[in-house]
Design goal:
215 residues, alpha/beta, Rossmann fold, 6-stranded mixed sheet, 31% helix, disordered C terminus, binds guanosine-5'-triphosphate, binds magnesium ion, nucleotide-binding, lipoprotein, membrane
């Protein structure tokens, strides 16, 4: 007989310009796979159960389109999300600049300067092509109210789990501060790619990774 374990469900949205590695980060986190090819995303959603500081939580992760973002769509997923990964590539300074507009839109829409955000500088394996220094990225993160900044490599699976866990932890802390016992939000998803057993990109992984390398 199985014991019912209360689980919280949190909605995480991955935002950023086209080609910065949002889908690769998500695929590494959810499925533990590396995707070499570039296949621009329209919108995909994934579910994954993880352990955050001893709590079982289910993450509903929305991987968004970097290119041709429609403002209306963006507003919809910003409204439904509780935590946000704002991703740029360390090889592209414009991809960092573009995040400021996104963050501003997010804060205005939520009417909350402390919305759970992690700033993610991806492609850290391409150090030789670096166009954004750590100092520049930290300056942005401190200008956003000291949101955490991580450098990740989806290719090498560095700091991938950490960014998802960090944003999840921020949501949990907010819930606790507000005295709520549940997270969640039951908003509709336009395209859901849920766990269907051993499907190609649809697996709900239960792996845990406990590395902690915070830059
Ligand atoms: N070297 C390196 N390449 C990466 C990394 N992450 C992603 N890439 C490559 O960058 C390209 C774009 O990656 P995607 O994950 O599809 O980018 P995206 O942000 O989802 O792009 P859109 O869906 O168009 O918004 C792919 O060719 C990836 O292989 C990384 O950490 N290191
Ligand atoms: Mg994508």
């Amino acid at each position: 007989m199985s014991r019912a374990v209360p689980q919280r469900e949190y909605h995480i949205v991955v935002l950023g310009s086209g080609g910065v590695g949002k889908s690769c980060l998500t695929a590494q986190f959810v499925q533990g796979v590396w995707i070499e090819r570039y296949d621009p995303t329209i919108e995909d959603s994934y579910r994954k159960q993880i352990d955050v500081d001893g709590r079982q939580v289910i993450l509903e992760i929305l991987d968004t389109a970097g290119t041709e973002q429609f403002t209306a769509m963006r507003e919809l997923y910003m409204k439904s999300g509780q935590g946000f990964l704002l991703v740029f590539s360390i090889t592209s300074s414009s991809s960092l600049k573009e995040l400021s507009e996104l963050r501003e839109q997010l804060v205005n829409l939520k009417d909350d300067p402390n919305v759970p955000i992690v700033l993610v500088g991806n492609k850290s394996d391409l150090e030789e092509d670096r166009a954004v220094s750590r100092a520049q990225a930290f300056a942005v993160s401190s200008g956003w109210g000291n949101v955490p900044y991580y450098e990740t490599s989806a290719r090498r699976r560095q700091n991938v789990t950490e960014v998802f866990v960090d944003v999840c932890r921020q949501i949990i802390h907010r819930d606790l501060q507000r005295g709520r016992s549940g997270g969640g939000g039951g908003e509709d998803r336009r395209r859901r790619r849920e766990d269907e057993g051993d499907g190609d990109r649809r697996r709900r992984s239960r792996r845990r990774h406990n590395r902690c390398v915070i830059l």
